[in-house]
Amino acid sequence: MNEVNQSPTYLWVGRILSGLVIAFLLFDAGGKLAKIEPVLKSMEELGLPASSATTIGILLLVITVMYAIPQTATLGALLLTGYLGGAVAIHVRVNNPLWTHTLFPVYVGILLWTGLALRNPKIKELF
């Protein structure tokens, strides 16, 4: 299937899903970069030093922008999958609730890849 045969409905649903993921991740990165007190407190509760907020925020921002750009979206999705996997590991380590905290990054990852597959026929062919 090529871009010409891509259903406009699938394309728009993919863009909307990807847009929601991008908005959430940009909000998350912004909170870390702005060093908002609740974000820093949450990081410390998860065992991450507050001093790492800027580094994590920059990494998340750069990778999210990569996901938003069509030419680098697949690489961005792969890198975000790694980032989200790390988030799952951190939640498991501190024994957070499974369905609401630990698996939340998995839910984001599902939306991320579904959005990419719907807006990029080459990715959809892999499934």
TrEMBL record:
Q: Which UniProt keywords apply?
A: Membrane, Transmembrane, Transmembrane helix
Q: Is the keyword Membrane in the record?
A: yes
- What InterPro entries is this protein classified in? DoxX
Q: Does the keyword Membrane apply?
A: yes
**Gene Ontology annotations for the cellular component aspect, listed alphabetically:** membrane
Compartment(s) of residence: Membrane
Q: What is the lineage of its organism?
A: Bacteria, Pseudomonadati, Spirochaetota, Spirochaetia, Leptospirales
Q: For this UniProt entry, which segments traverse the membrane?
A: 9-27, 47-68, 75-92, 98-118
Give the protein name, as stated in the record: DoxX-like family protein
Its membrane topology is listed as: Multi-pass membrane protein
Under the heading Pfam families, the entry gives: DoxX_2
